[in-house]
From TrEMBL, chains A, B:
<dbReference type="InterPro" id="IPR047057">
    <property type="entry name" value="MerR_fam"/>
</dbReference>
<keyword id="KW-0805">Transcription regulation</keyword>
<dbReference type="Pfam" id="PF13411">
    <property type="entry name" value="MerR_1"/>
</dbReference>
<dbReference type="GO" id="GO:0003700">
    <property type="term" value="F:DNA-binding transcription factor activity"/>
</dbReference>
<feature type="domain" description="HTH merR-type">
    <location>
        <begin position="6"/>
        <end position="75"/>
    </location>
</feature>
<dbReference type="GO" id="GO:0003677">
    <property type="term" value="F:DNA binding"/>
</dbReference>
<keyword id="KW-0678">Repressor</keyword>
<dbReference type="InterPro" id="IPR000551">
    <property type="entry name" value="MerR-type_HTH_dom"/>
</dbReference>
<dbReference type="InterPro" id="IPR009061">
    <property type="entry name" value="DNA-bd_dom_put_sf"/>
</dbReference>
<protein>
    <submittedName>
        <fullName>MerR family transcriptional regulator</fullName>
    </submittedName>
</protein>
<keyword id="KW-0804">Transcription</keyword>
<feature type="region of interest" description="Disordered">
    <location>
        <begin position="123"/>
        <end position="150"/>
    </location>
</feature>
<keyword id="KW-0238">DNA-binding</keyword>
Length: 166, 166
DNA sequence: CTATAACTTGGAGTCGACTCCAAGTCAATG
DNA sequence: CATTGACTTGGAGTCGACTCCAAGTTATAG
């Protein structure tokens, strides 16, 4: 129950798994708020700052560009999304984006599995936006089968061709 | 069915959902093999080329850098992964990468849901149980993939409090 | 015959996200 | 007191992945 544990930029970088330069860069572009400084001018971080950096790393891993991460942090900082309906909308929309990304990734996994299983390749990985799939948590969704042709940028015979046996 | 349908670069770009410049760029960096040319020098594409480009787009969406996509295409082109055990290993490893990415994304979705549901934030997406594994050294040169140390997402236990578990 | 459109090429420019550097400050150490 | 090390700053450089441009060719339309 110590008062408040604090960290140097180096310790913070280690804990969050990113470089000190990156932390300074995030502050520079104001993705992170200006960190408190000690008397000697050194940056001082607290657990919540590390959590924020971790959140950034996590979102980045989902392929979200830094600019899109901003609204998440704004909400995060305020702990009150209800007050920012616009941000909430953006977040909800990004949630949908992520959900479809999950579907897309799952298809790639299926694709790989099929290829590896039968020693053949070729056949596209259905891309894109799919209509309305719900949420759910594919914990270990073994084979869910490559989805049927749905969306598609255009009405193409693309899906035609050789189907991977099965 | 006609023998072999062919497409111009523009049609190909439209079908694959990327720009013609990007197709030329991929050829320039040899991610795509040099396309056949017509008598007038124009590039000529076939369905399989479009499939390949779609595969690239799909893998890109999973956050894979172009250089890592190469081996996939090599296997794809040969339609015989069995002959390239090394490539198969890389692909398997990328499969794992994708699976963990899915977990990561699901984490973010859960995070958002919790956030939106209770109007509070804070609680990271973290590397939660990183009690005692070696941290990734900052000296890590060029590796952006998910280090094993980076994956320890909390299960949606975030409900109750916000006290970081350590 | 010219204009337009669709392509070709090599190369330059852009953008996001770092990553590195030089010069300086400050605290502790030999 | 000189050195070492961890930090500070502003700014330059890098890298991946495009994106745009100028100059040229070829095919078709008016």
């Amino acid at each position: 129950m110590n008062a408040e544990m604090t960290f140097t930029i180096k310790q913070t970088a280690e804990q969050a798994g990113i470089s000190v330069d990156t932390i300074r860069y995030y502050e520079k572009i104001a993705l992170l708020p200006r960190a408190d400084r000690q008397d000697n001018g050194h940056r001082l971080y607290r657990m919540k700052d590390i959590d924020t950096i971790r959140l950034i790393s996590c979102l980045k891993k989902t392929g979200m560009p830094l600019e899109e991460i901003r609204p998440f942090l704004a909400v995060s900082a305020n702990s009150d999304p209800g007050e920012y309906p616009e941000l909430v909308d953006r977040i909800k929309s990004h949630r949908e984006h992520i959900v479809s990304q999950i579907a897309s990734l799952q298809q790639v996994v299926d694709f790989i599995d099929i290829k590896l299983a039968e020693g053949k390749y070729r056949q596209d990985c259905p891309n894109g936006s799919q209509a309305g799939m719900g949420e759910n948590k594919p914990r270990e969704p073994k084979s869910k089968s490559v989805s049927p042709a749905e969306m598609g940028y255009f009405p193409v015979s693309a899906k035609a061709g050789k189907s991977p046996a099965f």
